[in-house]
Structure formats: C-alpha cells, structure tokens
What does this fold into?
Amino acid sequence: MDVWCEDEAGPYQTIPIPGQSWQRTGQPGRQAHEYIRNGTAKLLTVFHPRDGQVRVKGVTTCTNAVLLPWLKAQLTAILADLPLPADQTATTTHRPTWEQWQVGLTVTFTLFTELPPLRMLLVLDNLVGHTNPDWVCWCMEHGIMLLYTPVAGSWLNMAESIQRVLKRRALDGTHPGTPEQIIDALEAVAAVWNKNPTPFVWGGKRATRRCRTRQRHHAQGGSGAYTHQPVRKLRQTIIAEWRRTCQMTH
It folds into this structure.
C-alpha cells in the first residue's frame, strides 16, 4: 500500500522575497522597495515521502474545478504504476481493511458497503473542497483512503515539508513580476528535485524540538519530517555543474 501526501502551497505574491542569492564579491544584491501587486500563484503538490518524488502544478486559482481534475489525473497515473491486487472486485471482504484506518478518528466519512482493495493512503488537510462528496466517492471507487489532518495539525502532512524546500530554492532572493514567473520557477525547481530526490521519514531533531516546544506550551509551525540523508544544498549542485561545464569546454 502506497502513502502519498497532497497540499496546496501559497499564495505567493509578486513582491521582493528575502533570501540568499548569487552575486559577485563586493556587489550585493539589491531590491527596490516598490512593487506592484500583480496577482498570486499557488502550487498544487502530490508528494511521495518514501522515495521523495513530487508532482506539482502551478496555478493562479485553486478552486475545485482546477484542483480536483488535476488530482484525479495524477492519482490515476500513480495507480497505473502500482501492482494490481489479486482480487480487484469490490466486495464486503475488503471493508475491514478500510475501517481500521478510521479507528480513533473523531470525524469520518461513510464507507461504501462494498469496497475495492485498498491501494493507497492519501494524506491531506480538511478543507471543504477535500471533503467534496463526488471526490470522496471517486477515491473510494479507485481504492484510495483519504486521511485528513486535524485542525491546527497541518504539520502532519509531509507535503508541506517539500513545498518549503521548493519555495526556498525557487523564490528566495528574487523579485518576480508576474504569477507566471513564480509558476515557472517553482515547476523548474521541482523538475530538478525529481532528478535526485530525498526520501522523507518521521522523527529526528525537528520532532524532538517540537516536543520540547509543546512542553513549554508554545505553538510552532513547520513539518515533523526529517531525512536519513542530508538534502543537498543548491550551492553545491550549481558548483558541481559549473566545474563539469568548465572541464568540457577546456
């Protein structure tokens, strides 16, 4: 059974974004204080923590008419790559497998009497659009169990972890002028990430810090995910590519 996470990042504005940038020595980057509000962009994300692969789409609006068709297309493609279960018929015998994922939940949705084999768990937040009856029924028909993060518990969704990485690499230190520039940068960085993704798992130093924070009764944002191997810094990647290019040209 595969576990995937879904989230919508943003909105990202067309304003100067603080952060590091590449500049010549003695010539620091400068950004004007003036900017024009020229719309916003959001990033639709489906993330696979086990291998670190991410599927994204930049949009300027995130209604159900935009989000749900894209999600269905991505999930259909993911399911097509998964091994087919021996018994694909929807029967009552598969129901206990689904019900065990609703044990202990305060809010659940009604399961079909006859269900197909459970093939995927999809973690997402509890926005109204995510509880759309047609969407929930479509997921059950395709063997997808929806698990909603609780209110004020969006950090339980690892999709927020990868979104933070992509946003930092794509937008820090820049001043995009249009939503299209933001979308192009985010999608380009996601494509580079997928060439050498980093798996994510639960726990680690960040989780320990969050436990200490909870003991002090201070809320803290962010995700609880960490990696077994460090995420490669973008600076190192660029330097390695520059050296390889220099060797080829000389």
Observations:
- The two ends are 50 Å apart (CA to CA).
